[in-house]
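Researcher: Let's try something more involved. This one mixes different molecule types, so please make sure each is placed in the same coordinate frame as the others.
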Amino acid sequence: MKRSDRLVAMTSFLIEHPMELISLPHFSDKYGAAKSSISEDLAIIHRMFEQNGTGYLQSISGAAGGVKFIPQTNDTYSSKFIDHLCKELEDPSRILPGGYLFMSDVLGNPATVRNIGRLFASKFADLEIDSIITVATKGIPLAYGVASFLNVPVIIVRRDPKVTEGSTVSINYVSGSSKKIQTMVLSKRSIKEGENVCIIDDFMKAGGTINGMKSLLEEFQANVKAIGVLAEAEDEEEDRVVDQYVSLLQIKNVDAANGKIEVVKGNYFND
Amino acid sequence: MKRSDRLVAMTSFLIEHPMELISLPHFSDKYGAAKSSISEDLAIIHRMFEQNGTGYLQSISGAAGGVKFIPQTNDTYSSKFIDHLCKELEDPSRILPGGYLFMSDVLGNPATVRNIGRLFASKFADLEIDSIITVATKGIPLAYGVASFLNVPVIIVRRDPKVTEGSTVSINYVSGSSKKIQTMVLSKRSIKEGENVCIIDDFMKAGGTINGMKSLLEEFQANVKAIGVLAEAEDEEEDRVVDQYVSLLQIKNVDAANGKIEVVKGNYFND
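Model: All components are placed in one shared frame. Result:
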């Protein structure tokens, strides 16, 4: 196979298999090329991925070695994307009765969801995450967005047990803002003891839901390695029960009377 | 930019932008290359995409023309993937009380979900689908899988209205197998009149839920252009209220007493 053909094939293969260790012999067998040619191809792909903010190729040497595509956006790209999201959410027609924001269209756009996933995955790529957890319903697309880049399973917490989940563990928790007692249910076979878990959700007010997921994960003796939320509300900061998290957006102010919303960058770029 | 560099950049760009018309000048500006060079690059990418079952590049000529990446798997690939899924589901430890199957791990695997999406998208690529609809919870990942290849939004039907959905349209429907009356709710601003919609769900027994979505879509005067389900149950066929659908799998027999499950290919390859 010619270099030009190989580059197309290897680029698509690597993009489809993020975080997966691919041995050089695998590539040289697949494309009928010497290992030295494959190494040169990989160097080109690595350089272009870095240049375009797609990520980079990590080389692991030794007999069990190979190459891993690590998704990694650059700050220019992330910053531009977040700015764009802020603008999109500041559209006054999003204001719903009670000062809530309509966001389902944003969460329904697969390209947006993929980009949100890309940003969180970039941030969490070196934490050795084993799985992504979220609570039904709105967090699910975002969780898959992150999972598709980290190449780990998604686990969905539910509000009520379903027969198709098999035996479950359930907890009661107090929601942060409304102080109501709520329930969360997780299938028993979904998480193994000692797993490194990343919590993803669309929106955080006081953080009660995320805190509930943390308590549930304690029952499974799993480690919460990272928390990512698309948007956080500003006004609840003093009561917040969760402190270590990464947010892309902060909804600073929803002024329903004057039809104005202020959305700014979250803490993604802090530190 | 050199051809080798361009091929990597253009391959990743096209994979990230399926079904999107990209003008040749866009590429020649972006990569500082003559249109003739870009055309040669695209010919290489087209050939490799076809060869690997990734899809193909559709050229649209004229002033408003350009190139579109159409995801399209080949039958060898699809067949191998479906066989693998059948095997995975025949694992007897999946049997739950009542003869239900535990499938959350399969639906939680982002690579599996992406492949399922790829298969349905291949089948529905020329139907000019405007959006994908599904009902919370389990169909959501699959709907995003399909949507990410067709590059259209996902719309989620809920069982109860949520304040964050704004005003909604709700219908009551009779579930196919249990004959119980159930409710479905859809945000009013989610679908426009005349839209071409594709229904995606994880599992179909008698088809009551899918029929419910069809009735709901009638309220919006939307056209149901395609229905895709991951798995259908065999034993309900005579009572089935939905007839035009594509299924990847058919669960033929769950023998809880002897710990045996039989899963075969669905109607995906028929016609």
